[in-house]
Amino acid sequence: MSDERSLEPDARQRAAWLEQFGGFALAQLDALSSAPAVGIVGAAGNAIARELSAPIPEGPLPGGAAEILARLERAVTASLNAPGPGYMAYVPGGGLYATALADLISNCVNRYTGQSSAAPALCQLEDDVLRWLASSFGYDYDDGARGLLTTGGSMANFSAIAAARHARFGDSGDYSRALAYVSTQSHHCVAKSLRLAGIPIKNVRVIATDAAFRMDPEALARQVRADRAAGGEPFLVVAAAGTTNTGAIDPMPALAELCGRERLWLHVDAAYGGAFVLCDEGRRRLAGIARAESIAFDPHKGMFLPYGTGCLLVRDGAALRAVHHVGADYLQDFDAHDRRGEPPNPAEYGPELSRGFRGLRLWLPLMLHGAGAFRRALAEKLALAERAHEGLSRRIEAGAPLELVARPQLSALAFRLARAPGESLASWGARNTALLDAINRRARVFLSSTNLPTHERDGQVLTLRVCVLSFRSHARHIDQLLEDLDAALLETRAADRA
Fold it and tell me: What are phi and psi for residue 282, nearest 5 degrees?
């Protein structure tokens, strides 16, 4: 029997732990279809957190694996059930089982993949995935495009913004007149990335959107002209391919034309929507995205991976390398090898030198399931959003007091209660909150909310969001959503009358 106090358990102990902890993980997956879609958060979740909080022991926890698993099982209940089929809030993350296996393998073999010379074959597998993804988006690796797997869309956006800034301003360090452009629907991580890249927030111009929440190219052109006339240096436009609020897709062809004419770097934040290029209908809706200089997207969203995998694709890989590559004497041993034919070096294209074998998270599921399985699942998500839209439309036509804020452009849609004549924003928002709570309380589906402009343009009001992006979500789950909406409408009407 291995001494559990040792950091090197023997084969018997490793196998026992694998059976115990693996069994726990499989049981969690088996329970997803029947588990509540909501999970325990807020005050009740915080109470569980305090209950489980304990000092780190000097020796193994009394009770061993069984006690550890009991605590983990209790802790998991205090969370949103993001991998469940009824989770349609925010942007779901499905959590492919194949990627869990990939993480187990990559963590056990624990090879260093920051420098491709240290693990050329493993880095080649990762680069094969990136080459395939680049081609799927319309970029050509043989023509100099490059990709990078990151921890998520935030880091992918940051690296793209840094590359755009460096391409225009080099190492001058003077970004006082550097101007970037986003829409009113831009994700907050874009502003954060601009700040981290040294662009003052006052230099970030927020461009109006149209009725479908897409950036207005004419408004953008007017702002760029005004800024140039005032002595500013416009350098970057960040468009969205699937905004978080409504799934809106900015008009890529028009923005690409404008950016080409004005010598602006066009970056597309496609963290949520980018993966839809893998299916025919999604590729049609995202037409023009290949004309961007760079694209960020999250495989842990649209490719259903567990959280922690983003991707950046750049048309000109040299521009990405120029901002990230810095040499160091202690890395000179890698140059002693014959490096002919070596795959691209991940550390030269991103901020991380130390990194795990991130590529296996994508490579293994693609090899086990094939790309076709992802294409079919993504096409299904678009169809499910249309199913939800049609169900809501039928109810509105039948007299339900609802309004659709925007037709789904991808797999997200927004709706809310119709405003009563003369109703204040506060009262209207409170009624929408009550409707959201009544839907979620049934625990079969879980929706989230955002704030969107009113039709009267007298402010913003709380609006319900549906985002379908789990590979476990199917037509019956959309039907459950609509059934629970019907019940919630009856419940809130009764409360209003009381």
Answer: -65, -40
Dist. CA 326–CA 345, nearest whole Å: 12
Q: Is 218 helix (H, G, I), strand (E, B) or coil?
A: helix
Q: In what order do the strands lie in the sheet with 460-467?
A: 402-406, 412-417, 460-467, 448-453
Q: Which domains does the chain have, with CATH numbers?
A: 11-79 (no CATH), 105-369 (3.40.640.10), 373-497 (3.90.1150.10)
> Could you give the CA distance from residue 325 to residue 363 in angstroms, rounded to a whole number?
26
Share of the chain above pLDDT 70, in %: 96
**CA-wise closest residue to 213 among 450, 489, 430, 45:** 450
Helices (H) and strands (E) in the chain, counts: 16, 11
Half-sphere exposure (Cβ direction) of 480: Cα atoms closer than 13 Å:
19
Q: Is the pTM of this model over 0.90?
A: yes
Q: In the chain, pLDDT over 90 holds for what percent of residues?
A: 88
Amino acid, res. 400: A
Tens-digit pLDDT profile for residues 462-481: 999 999 999 999 999 999 99
Q: What is the DSSP letter of 209?
A: B
Q: State the sign of the Cα–Cα–Cα–Cα dihedral 35, 37, 41, 43.
A: negative
Angle at 8 between CA 6 and CA 10, to 5 degrees: 105
Indicate the helix (H) or strand (E) that contains 463. Answer: strand 460-467
User: What's the one-letter identity of residue 94?
Assistant: G
Question: Could you give phi then psi for residue 172, rounded to 5 degrees?
Answer: -65, -35
**Lookup result for tokens 């193994």:** 60
Nearest to 290 by CA among 444, 174, 136: 136
Contact 343, 120 (CB under 8 A): yes
Q: Is the dihedral of CA 63, 65, 71, 77 positive or negative?
A: negative
Residue identified by tokens 């890989």 is 317
